[in-house]
Structures are given as C-alpha cells and as structure tokens.
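Deliverable D4.2, example record:
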Amino acid sequence: MSRPVVYLLPHEDRRLGAGHLWVFSNEIDTHRSPLGSFAPGDPVVLADARGRRLGMGYINPHSLITVRLLSRDPGSEIDARFFHDRFERAFAVRRPFGIERFGRLVFGESDRLPGLVVDRYGDYLVVQITTAGMERWREVIRDALVGSCAPRGILYRNDSDARKLEGLPAGVEEAWGTVPQSVTVEEGGRVFAVSPWRGQKTGWYYDQREHRLRIAREAPRGRVLDVFSYVGGFGISALAGGSQEAVLIDQSEEALERARSNAAANGLPAPRTLAGDAFEILRALGEDEERFELVIVDPPAFIKRRKDQREGLLAYERLVTRAARLVASGGWLVFASCSSHLEARDFRGVFARGVRRAGREARIVSVGGQGPDHPIHPWIPETSYLQVLYGVIEEG
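Output generated by the structure prediction step:
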C-alpha cells in the first residue's frame, strides 16, 4: 500500500530514534510535506530529512501533536491482525498481576496504540478513541477486541474533551452486543457497581486500585473522610479495613447514591454523604472542628494544560490547607493528583505549603503512582500522570 510521506526537518528525528511516538507540527518540513494536503487521520509514512523511512503512523494537520507513530515498520498493514497482536502483547503485560478481568487492558501510547483506551468490566469492554487516526479504524478495533476478548458487549465511550481537540464528534454508543447501564467491579474481595454509560471516565478509576487496597490494609482506623469520593471507592475500602465511620464528599448526588448502595452491597455501614462543592464543604467541616484519622483527597486534574499551571497549583495548595485542618493529630492525609503536567517537585511543594498554611506539621511517609495496568512509556512522561502522597499530620 502506497502512503504519503511526512518529512521531518533536519535533526528532528532524534526523539523518535530514542523511542518517542509523537511528532509536533514545528518538527515537520512543511515545504516537502504541506500539511494542507493531509486530512485528519490519514495514514502516513515518516521519513527524516535525508528521506530514510522511520515508520508509519497517522496525521492530524490541525493538532499540535501532528503525527503519532504506530509502527517502526514503514510497510506495516494496520488491520485486525495488527490490533490483535498489539492487544495480546498488552494483555501479557497485565496477566502476572491477575487483573485482566477488571482493569485497563490498553493504555494508549504505553501499549503503542496512541489514542486508544480499553477498560474491562468482566464480560464488558468500554473503549475510548481520542484521535482522528484511531477513529479511522474503529470497526477494525471492535472486531479485533471481539476476537481477542469474546465480550458480551462493547461500549464506545467517546465523549472526552480530547476528541474536541481532534475535531471529532462526541457520543456514547454500543459497538457490539449489549452493555447494561450498571456493571460490577470486583476488587480486593469487594464489589462496586458503576455506570459505564454515565459514570466518570469509563465508569471506574482503575489507576487508583493499588491505593484503595493499601487503604484497606494499612490506614489508621477511626473516622475517614473521602473527598471527591465518586462512588465511594476509598471510603468503602477504609470501612472494609476497619474504619468506624465514613464521610463522603462529591458534587454528584447520583454518585453518592451509588456509594451508599455499594456500602450496603459489601455489608458495611452506610456512609454519611455530603453533596456540593468540596472546597466549601471542607471549610464548613473545619468551622465545625470535625476531625478524622484518615482524610483522602483525589481531585480531578487542575492542570490540564501547561497554561493552567499557576491557577492549578494555587487550587491544590488551598485544597491541602483545608484538608490538613481536618486531620486528627497523628492521622493520615492521602493526597492525589492526576495532572500529567504537574512535576513531582511542584506537587510536594504545594503539599508542604498547604500543610503549613493550615498550621500543621507533616511527614511524607510514602509516595505512589498508577497501577500496573497503566504502564509508563519511558520516553513519554505524560503517561506517568498519577501522584499520591501519604502524609502523617501532627499539630504545629
């Protein structure tokens, strides 16, 4: 198959040679490869300035990340066999961890399938396609997943903001079989009902699995406060581990209702739920002088783009301050960030400043990240996005 060639400027092949998968618009020789001659999602061959073929991928001339590499073989056929092979390699990485029935099966660039995410909920798959290139192969991807996983249903959850940046329409649709409104996740001997159709992301945050399991094993007992709780993953895990009482905060009453149902399904006490703005609820709890042996804060990404850096850092710091005031002396504050543009040094900085503004002292006793079903590509730092700090909080 003859594909158009995208030529790079001199010396702009170095990152690709080192293992990266992205080509930015300012790295392309637009005289030899006029971007206006390509349509979003077109398969292309990449070549360096001397004409040496580097591999094949797909292009979106309207995106800052203009080309994403799929294969180092310029002649690769992108068909069901190609996807089946990539899926099998991705599954093999996860198999030793025993998470192939409930977990992220495909994590974009880390599995050399940029623009594609696949989460498994037992017999059901939820797929996110975020790039114009992957959109070209949506039916091929569906057929390869059917052959590889034999699911009862596949849901395309294509409603993320990333699709807007690629000029793609948003929508949620069944691609294969039937996917129910509610599915059950099994984790650590506990069950959680989530909605693949309406829930956040694909329905569940598999990237936090290791931390929920750790909370159940190790966290101090007593009262637990779960901020941005969604359907109660952290709070319910703490209750299962022996915490006496759980208070859950989330903006969504629907999510909190599921959290109460999930607690009941696990034979645990009903949590107290507070619906509304987390910052304001934390302030009110502080004014009431409430204290918790464990406070878990897992907010949405406050720094989605680099230009969000200043405001995002201030928001994280303010959140740490309000949360730290609620931790009983000697208790834990577990604080997370899923902002890929937040450096570890800056994250520790906002944690330290926030604790000091609260008039408290802290020691970070552990740090963590995403689980093994979200592997990190060594040359793409954006794939390492989750940071979790475990701090012991004491009086100032």
